[in-house]
Queue: 2 jobs
Job 1
Amino acid sequence: MVEVRLEGVTKRFGRVTAVNNVNLTFGDGEFTALLGPSGSGKSTILYLVAGIYKPSKGRIYFGDRDVTDLMPNERNIGLVFQNYALYPHMTVYDNIAFPLKLRKTPPEVIRDKVLEVAKFLHIHELLDRYPAQLSGGQQQRVALARALVKEPEVLLLDEPLSNLDALLRIKIRSELKRIQKELGVTAIYVTHDQSEALAMADKVVVINRGVIQQEAPPDTIYNEPRNVFVASFIGSPPANIFPATMDYTEEPCINLPGGTRHCVEDEYASVLWRMKPSKVIVGFRPEHAEIVENPVDGRPVIVGEVYTVEPLGRENIVTVASEDIHLKVITPPEVRPEAGELVYVAVEKGKLMLFDPQTEVNLRYIAREWSQGG
Amino acid sequence: MARRGRQALFFLLPMLILVVAFYILPLILTAWISFTPLTNWRVRDQLDDFVGLENYVNLYYLARYDPDFHKVLQTTLVFVTFTLFINVVGGLVLAILTYLIDERISLAYRLLWLLPRMTPLAVFGLLWYYFFYGGPQGTLNSFLLKLGVIDEPVRWGTDPAMLPYSAWAIIVFVNGLVGVSYGMIIFYSAFKNIPRELIIAARVDGARTWEVIRHILVPMVRWHIVFVTVWQLLSLITSYTHLFVLVQWSVVDKWYGTTLALYVFNTAFFDVKNQGFAAAAAVILVIIGSILGLVTLRIMRFSQMISPPRGDI
């Protein structure tokens, strides 16, 4: 298979810059998810790789081959659309055979290949039907079959699961990943659904406003978001984010909402000493905090009033109001405080994230860049 | 069920009234007149004076022995066939071209092709009257004379040496110019309704422009092609206004520019004012039109294209 590389790629539509100076490598045989809100430019990147759009600036490589000026049909890619885009006037067989027919493949070979891929995806009994006679999941498989029958070097998936119902989505999710690993094809998967991205991908690329925010394995994206955007986009509910002032009398200490203080000891301390910002942006994940009756020493604690409680069965989401900040905390089912009750929110040790108030970059990454730089 | 029947009737009523008042009643009236010797609108004397099949018998003899009427029948066949071809295939080609080019140019281009349809009939007729005029002042003649292609003015639509083809070419050309925009508009909007992803998918699958047209665009507007074909066929069989102007102003030969529809009109209202005879010809025209319409639907396998409605209505 092949590695896909974008070098300094920019795409403008009129005055709008959809993708801004992106450098990105999709590893050979890797499953990469492009994750971002709608309008972030993730689909544009996919269409640039497909050759449907031409970059305004920059080059695109498949391995050593510069494909920037090649048409989609010269790139050997398979593309699966959100709405499948099956040809409604052709049978399933003809849909799958279409790319091979255009390549002037001999009919016997077409037959063999279509049957092979249809068996592989368990749709060999549907070959005589028309797309309108198929269920959403079946249409999805046909679309995948049409993309795979060409034996593409790169498989591009544009939100292929978002038209399916929730149960089917989870089932096909794992199946898609298995197929990709079995074929060893380089896969690029566009989605706005973080759970899909985290569950399926070897590497997640978070994009916002045409700029790459973070490019890392799912665990890192989740546990060590590079900036405020990634922290607030990933997670359900996403991380709590709020500004706080600093105090450097003995140690770097954060003035938390509700009047408590937390003095930083971990790896953030050295950065704070060096930068001495008067303010920081604080973040923590709702599942990394708990509601306690008495503050425990050492843990960062925020005092607030219970605002709402949302029972979800397996857990509760408790919203706590502290000053004008609303924090979400996930609690076990039995912890269900009354609205209006005064509570302490204690964050797990080492789970507090601090971001630079100007650049919104996680201070931990700044610390690492410094230690790498010398 | 009775209630639903009444509901259906209620919603169909306005259309039913229109159809009955402006189609069924005139049709019955025409059939009635075709059995009378009505001439010069002497309605009071002749409307209840039945002559049986006399008008139809006359029509039969005319079709058998009258050379002018032979010309009318030939002209009808040639006119309908070739203009229909231009209207459907030309409309399809124009729609594909305008679909493939930049949106703004496409809009200007489509408006340009709509001009003949928007131009009042008399102005449009006058334009071609000047263009094909037989004297040296005629646009085409003066142009070709200046270029030295011809030495003396040509009477394009009436010179016996070039008949019938020159007259046929002119009437097909002028009507085709008006009719082609209809197909273009219908096909263009049908193309616009094809999801963009289908075109992109075909491109990714390796289709060149020609293959996208052949495998995606045209098959997906099949229904529209059937519709435009039948619609244009029926309107070409029955329309006569442009031909009337061309014949009346002697742009083309009288008989090689007259179709059956124009013949009916002239017979009833213009030349001999023999309404009884014209009505008989009109009845035959309606029968021919109905048969051709049904045959076309059958050939294009219309019944296979209509699917039963989804859900409970």
Note: Chain A has a mean pLDDT of 90.
Job 2
Amino acid sequence: MADAYPQVKTTQDFAQQSPEYRNSIEKLVVSHAINELQGARVFDEPAVALAPHPYAKWLTCRVAMEEYGHHCKFFDLGRQIGIDEDRMLPEKTAKKPLSMFDFPLTTWEEFVAIKAFGDLAEILQVEDLLHCSFLPLRNLARSTMPEEKFHHDFGMQFGRELLKDPESKARFQAAVNRVFPVVPAFFGASRSKNNAIFREFGIKLRTNEDMRADYVARASAAAADLGLTLPELPAEMLH
Amino acid sequence: MGQPMRDALAQAWFSTLGEPLGKAELADIAGYLRGLGLEAGAQPLLASGWADAARLLRSAAGEWWEREEAERRRLEAVAHLDPADPDWVRLNDLLHGAAAVAAGRGGNDDPGMIRVAAGAASYAAYHHELALVAGCDGDHPFIRKYSLYAGGRWLLGVYDGRLAIF
């Protein structure tokens, strides 16, 4: 087994790393900064209007602000390590947000499904950074994890409320059927060269395909917990 | 540090929940309702505790919410705030902390309510700043509402024709 990549404890130490290491960290920071912001804009903030009562509306406000907060944390780390600000803003960079953010949110049930199943994927992504060799990024991931777990719990909690009524349960199941298939792509391509480099540098722990398989297993457990089913996914989505 | 953050640090967020209402607060409530075009005659309903507040908040959002949203959209047509501004994010953390302290003090047993309270205060702060940037005067309902929050209250909404406050 190869030696573990040494810990990079500060942003000053980061500047002394190889261009390949720095480039890898920059890719991850840019991706998180863009996607946290995009998610808040296209899902969380619009969902306030869809929520059924003030309890849910204000809780959704809080979730939206937490997502904006995650963006700010990644954006701030990016600035500290010299990433140009424009690279971390969806409206100013050519890099596209993840395709799951193209999902057209129109109902409260869809938002609850996104929180229960989309944010579960985010938990896995953040988990993979909890032992990252670049400690400022590791610690940022650790600081956001409790909120990521809360966002998934939000989906499960309001999902359980939707199950109480047969009509809302049917709408929720239909929403899960629409939302779940867009999530596995969140983990990136299988046999990814980027991912291999991330693991070589001790930035990430697992392959994209391992994470995707784990996600499907955990999403299946979450669906079973709710008494729902997940739609079958085409084989090419899983490999 | 921006002005909203400087202002927020000096407020009494969630510190008078459940206490009897004073005359100035009653005037802000009446002004808030009038400003939204709602009936202001009924005596406000004072929530007796966190559980009572949670029960009220699970009622369907009524006309008052739609009036607020219509006013928010009207103001956003002339004023813009960036919710991803780091000062806003810091303000939200401050509000979350204040709500957690108040919930601990008040015997709240619903952890979600801490975030609900923080979200409500955040929205009130956003409305307030929006009204200021748009050049509204002190009688504007969002400025009246913020005054209640800044004085330690939580405006819960209007249910069955009565404004509920904690």
Note: Residues 8-228 of chain A form a domain with the Ferritin fold (CATH 1.20.1260.10).
